[in-house]
Amino acid sequence: MKRFSQQFRSGRRRWWLAATGLLLVAVVSAGCSGESNTVAADEAATTDSPIASMPFSRADGSQSQLSDYYGQPLVVNFFASWCPPCKAELPDIDAVHLEAKGEVKVLGISHDFTTEVWQDLIAETGIDFETVYQPDREIFIELELFGMPSTILINPEGEIVHTHQGIINAESLKALISEHLQVEVSP
To answer: Which residues, 6+ apart, have CB-to-CB distance to 146 below 8 Å?
Structure first.
């Protein structure tokens, strides 16, 4: 009887490990899917949209909101230090930022647990584009994004014209900027 009990517990443990593994694969796959879609005009982030005025913190401690950046083409990337794909894509996003400086604004929104972790990641990666801090993920949740990292493109009128969920490289980001924001980014 004791042997049966040990086998039962061992089988249950294997089942639990397998189920946990499958769940982890599903979560990582969702975050890394690279799913892109163009957003309908009625899903805009215009100044009357709830996301336009959701506050986030800047590195200097001041508060800002998305509508402060309207009037220029805008790329918004949602990231966190606990997300390996997020960390992997930051250099590519920074390269596009450096090539598009003055033509397209790039803004990163950190969903880290503390400001120290967010600022440590920025120092570690050495990225140059502006990042802000919004730990409660209000904008991310309001947009019903499901995977990290995620990137949205907003036209000068404040309308979200495209969303991309999953890791993105420099060439793909430049192509999306060209297609949806009508700005050519070249080295």
So the answer is: 30, 165
